UniProtKB/TrEMBL annotation:
<dbReference type="GO" id="GO:0006935">
    <property type="term" value="P:chemotaxis"/>
</dbReference>
<dbReference type="InterPro" id="IPR035965">
    <property type="entry name" value="PAS-like_dom_sf"/>
</dbReference>
<dbReference type="GO" id="GO:0016020">
    <property type="term" value="C:membrane"/>
</dbReference>
<feature type="domain" description="PAC">
    <location>
        <begin position="90"/>
        <end position="142"/>
    </location>
</feature>
<dbReference type="GO" id="GO:0007165">
    <property type="term" value="P:signal transduction"/>
</dbReference>
<dbReference type="InterPro" id="IPR051310">
    <property type="entry name" value="MCP_chemotaxis"/>
</dbReference>
<comment type="similarity">
    <text>Belongs to the methyl-accepting chemotaxis (MCP) protein family.</text>
</comment>
<protein>
    <submittedName>
        <fullName>Methyl-accepting chemotaxis sensory transducer with Pas/Pac sensor</fullName>
    </submittedName>
</protein>
<keyword id="KW-0807">Transducer</keyword>
<dbReference type="InterPro" id="IPR004090">
    <property type="entry name" value="Chemotax_Me-accpt_rcpt"/>
</dbReference>
<dbReference type="GO" id="GO:0004888">
    <property type="term" value="F:transmembrane signaling receptor activity"/>
</dbReference>
<dbReference type="Pfam" id="PF00015">
    <property type="entry name" value="MCPsignal"/>
</dbReference>
<dbReference type="InterPro" id="IPR013655">
    <property type="entry name" value="PAS_fold_3"/>
</dbReference>
<dbReference type="InterPro" id="IPR000014">
    <property type="entry name" value="PAS"/>
</dbReference>
<feature type="domain" description="Methyl-accepting transducer">
    <location>
        <begin position="188"/>
        <end position="417"/>
    </location>
</feature>
<dbReference type="InterPro" id="IPR004089">
    <property type="entry name" value="MCPsignal_dom"/>
</dbReference>
<feature type="domain" description="HAMP">
    <location>
        <begin position="131"/>
        <end position="183"/>
    </location>
</feature>
Amino acid sequence: MWYGSGKASSKNRTISDAEIMQSVIERTQAVIQFTPEGEILAANNIFLKAFGYTRPEIVGRHHSIFVDPEHVKTEGYAAFWRRLADGESFTDEYARIAKDGTTVWIHATYAPFMDDSGKVVKVIKVASDITRRKTGILSISRALRHLSEGNLVHRIAPCGLEDVDLLTQAYNTAAEQLSGMVASVSRAVESLLQTAAEMDRTSSDLSGRTRQQADTVQEAAAGLDKLTQTVRSSADGARAVERSADAARGTAEGGKAVVESAIAAMSKIEGSSTRISQIISTINDIAFQTNLLALNAGVEAARAGNAGLGFAVVASEVRLLAQRSSEAASDIKDLISQSSKHVAEGVALVEQAGGELQKIVAGVAGIHDHVTEITRGTENQTAALAEIGGGVAQLRRVTEQNAGAVDQSGASVRVLAQDAATLSEQVSLFRIGSGGVPAARGAGASAARAS
C-alpha cells in the first residue's frame, strides 16, 4: 500500500484513487521495486524496455547491476541504501547502465514504502527515461567545454527534443558566428603583426639613418667650426696684411718724396756744376790773357836791357803763375766735367729709381686695394659661416629631436608588436579550421615575437 488508512467510508475511495494513479504510473513511467537492501523484486515493462532486460534476468539481483562498478565500491553508494532503509527518499537524475553497456539517464524518485508500523518493507523507484534530453544537455555541456578550450569547430547534433534542439541550434549558430569573427580577427591580427613587423623594420632603418644623419651633421658642425675659425684667422691675417700694406704704401710714398727731393738736389748740383764750369772757363781765359801779357812784358824787358831785368823776372813769374792757374783751371774743369757727368748719371739713376718707386707705390696701392677687398670678403665669409653655423646647430638639434622621436616611435611600434603577438597568442587558442587548425599562427606572429 502506498497510502495510510482513513475512515472505512473513505478508505475504498482512497484505494480506488491509488489504483487509478498506479495504473497511470505503470503506463507512463518506468517502475521497479527493491527490498530495503537493494534486491530487485519487480519491474514493469517500460523499465525493462529502457534497460534491455527481461524480468527473469533481473528479479532477485541487486540494484548494482545498473550502476557503474566503480561507484558501487564507494561509501556513498552504501550510504544511499542505508538512508533508504531508514525511510529517506531521493529524487534526482541518475546515470544507469543498460544491459548492452550503454548509459541510460533517468529522472527518478527512490521512495521507501512502509507498513502500518512504519517499517520500510520495500523501496519503489519511479523513473522517466531522460536519456535523449540528458544526452542533448551533456552534448551542449561538452560543446561549451570545447568552446572554453577555444575549439570553435565542434558542433552539436540535434537530439530530437524541441527545447534542447533550440539550445543546440543556438549554440551551433553562435559557434559559427564566433568562428567567423575569430577568423576575421585572426586575419586582422596577422595583418597587424605583419604591419607591426614592417613598421619595426622601417622604424629601425629610420632610426639608424637618423642617427647617421645626426652624426654627419655633428661632424659637419665640427668641420664648420674649424672652417669658421680658419676664416676668422684669415680675416685677422688679412687685416694685419692690410695694415702692413698701408704702412708700405706710406713708406713708398715717403720714398717717392725723398727721390723727388734727391732729383731736385741733383738738378741744382748739375746747375752749380755748369756755373762753375763757366767760371773756370773765365779763369782759364784770364790765365791765357795773363800769360800773353807776361810774354809781352818779357819781350819788352828784353828790349830794355839791364833796366828791364827785374821786370823780366816778374813777368816770368807772372807767366808761370798764369800757366799754373791755367793748368789748375783745366784740372778743375776736368774734375767738374767728371762731376757733372757723375751728377748726370746720378740724376738719371735717381729718376729711374723714382720711376721704379712710382711703380712700387702703384703696386702697393693695388695690393692695398686687393687686401682690403679680401678683408671685406673674409669678414662677409665669417658672417655667412656664423649664420650657417647657427643653421647647422639648429639642424643638429632638430636631428637629435627627430632621433629621439624615432626611438620613441620604435618603442611604441615594439609595444604594438608585443601586444599584437599577445593578441595572436590569445586568438591562436581558438580552432576555427575544418581540421582544428589554430588561428593566427602565421609568419607575422613569429616576426612580431622576433621583434
